[in-house]
Amino acid sequence: MTAARALGLFLVGGAVIAGTVLDRPAARGPARAGDQFVLTADFHVHAFVGDGGVPPWELGREARRRKLDVIVVSNHNQLLAARLSAFGSRLYADENALIIPAQELTAPGFHMVAAGITRTIDWRLTAAQAIAAIHEQGGVAIAAHPGREFWPAYDEHARRLLDGTEAAHPAGRRFADARSEMSEFYQRSAALNPTLAPIGSSDFHFGGTLGECRTFVFADEYSTTGVLDAIRRGSTVASDGYGTLTGDPARVEIVRGLLAADPSPLRPTWPSRIAAYISVLGILILLLWK
């Protein structure tokens, strides 16, 4: 082995070890507002089993790095990723966000996050039928990125049955039309369904940032049951990450106060970034010098 390759291996190995040690999730407890928890959540996350970029056993720790208390793992029309994520969370119990299993029901006319279910929902059902099937399993139904093309699937009956709808989504940060369409869907649906929960989600796949849009959940207990019950009551505030908050005005003011005290959803990660740059340098040395 040449000195150059030995140096490359040393840099890569040292950087991996250093990055792992330095970028451990920060210990933090959930915020409180009176007798309730105010949990930060991302209700639309995909894992690397079909359509995500992060291994399911790492999602819970990555969520903690992003200052999330709860994530909903919702791969397209399957529950395997969510089950693997839940298994992984037991490996790092003290460093993980609460993981709620889900399916992103992907049908030709709509997408819907079915959170808290144990069996997959048939993608051939209508929106109203799918919501009823989700409720039969004790889950909650959240309209996923409900742009105008999905509106015909959500008739008045379906909108009355919905538990939540994404009012903050990365598509709305990039495209004004998407932002206005999701906002209009929320406003029109909430007029029919006063307990409809506004939801902020990242729809995290490969790119983007986990938790860039998020939900503040006012829950009576820090558990899956507490989170699902809060959604059913509409006790949430959706955040687009740029200061726009959607929800009950009193809850919005509480969230504004929490954000003022801790404005950034991300921990400083310069040590881990430096470790990543060193590892890239090591890889280049290994590739360029024999």
Name some characteristics of this structure.
single chain; alpha/beta; TIM Barrel; eleven-stranded mixed sheet
CATH topology of the largest domain: TIM Barrel
CATH H-level superfamily of the largest domain: Metal-dependent hydrolases
Number of helices: 10
Cα end-to-end separation? 8 Å
* Number of E-type strands: 11
Rg value = 20 Å
Explain what this protein looks like in three dimensions:
The structure is a single chain. With 290 residues, the chain is α/β, with parallel strands linked by helices. The chain has two domains: 1-23 and 270-290; 30-268, Alpha-Beta Barrel (TIM Barrel). Helices cover 42% and strands 21% of the residues. It has helices at 3-22, 56-65, 80-91, 127-136, 156-161, 170-174, 176-192, 224-233, 249-261, 270-288, and strands at residues 31-33, 36-45, 70-76, 98-107, 110-115, 140-143, 164-168, 197-200, 214-219, 236-239, 245-247. Strands 1, 2, 3, 4, 5, 6, 7, 8, 9, 10 and 11 form an eleven-stranded mixed beta sheet that branches. Strand 4 (98-107) and strand 5 (110-115) form a beta hairpin. The longest helix is centred in the N-terminal third of the chain and has 20 residues, at 3-22.
How is the secondary structure organized here?
Elements: H1 3-22, E1 31-33, E2 36-45, H2 56-65, E3 70-76, H3 80-91, E4 98-107, E5 110-115, H4 127-136, E6 140-143, H5 156-161, E7 164-168, H6 170-174, H7 176-192, E8 197-200, E9 214-219, H8 224-233, E10 236-239, E11 245-247, H9 249-261, H10 270-288
Parallel strand pairs: 2-3, 3-4, 6-7, 7-8
Antiparallel strand pairs: 1-2, 2-9, 4-5, 5-6, 9-10, 10-11
